[in-house]
Amino acid sequence: MSIYFDTNSIAVQERAKFWQEVVCSTFVPLECAFSDRQNFHGR
Length: 43
Fold this sequence. Notes:
Elements: H1 15-26
């Protein structure tokens, strides 16, 4: 079974926070550093 997450439906200002929460709760706890939070896309 594949797990798929995408930030397209998330408000731009919330994408980085959403992505970090998804990665940490699904895979491994970590802290993400985003060079450009306003243009971040995750899939």
